[in-house]
Amino acid sequence: METICVGPRVCAATPSKLFDDPVRVEVGLWNMVDRRLQAAHDLPLAGLEPLRVVVGRGGRARVGEIAAALGVSRGGASKLADRLERAGLACRESDPSDGRAAWVVATDAGLRMHTAASRTLDQTLDPVLARALGAGGVDGLAGALALLRAAVADDEETST
């Protein structure tokens, strides 16, 4: 395989290097954002992520929708919903059209937290992304990541 270079300083000679770098970046970004969210809102990033899914779906989502959006199991998503409930950021409401199903619904406190914590998330990431990539680089990375996510999703669908 030939060496793949992006810009003057970033080269990856193998697919494993192309795997390692985004994983390490994701972990570093997660830890940075998590520290800021904990300090500013006493909310871990693992709490904001399911809240973002719920609010992004109009303030309510099923556990299965949270699981699919976050790429976790239904059991994992249920535990995340339980944590939101204990924090007073969401509650569960039964689905009148399906007695077996329930909605995870953002509370008023959850909506306020979502707004404030999302602002902190953006304020934390914006300068890092701008410094590392510049405006055009951010758009390019977003496009590349969208293509990779689609390829991974296609592969998961064909292998199940």
Biggest sheet details: 3 strands, antiparallel
User: What's the structural domain tally?
Assistant: 1
How many strands? 5
* CATH fold description: Arc Repressor Mutant, subunit A
The secondary-structure element order is EEHHEHHEEH
Shape: globular
What descriptive keywords fit this protein?
160 residues, 5 helices, 70% helix, Arc Repressor Mutant, subunit A, alpha+beta
Account of the 3D structure:
The structure is a single chain. This protein has 160 residues and is α+β, with helices and mostly antiparallel strands. The chain has a single domain (4-151), classed as Winged helix-like DNA-binding domain superfamily/Winged helix DNA-binding domain (Arc Repressor Mutant, subunit A), CATH 1.10.10. Helices cover 70% and strands 14% of the residues. The protein has five helices and five strands; from the N terminus they run E-E-H-H-E-H-H-E-E-H. The protein has helices at 15-41, 45-56, 63-70, 74-86, 108-159, and strands spanning 4-6, 10-12, 60-61, 90-95, 98-106. The strands form two sheets. The chain has a three-stranded antiparallel β-sheet. Strand 1 (4-6) and strand 2 (10-12) form a beta hairpin. Helix 2 packs across helix 4 and helix 3 packs across helix 4 (74-86).
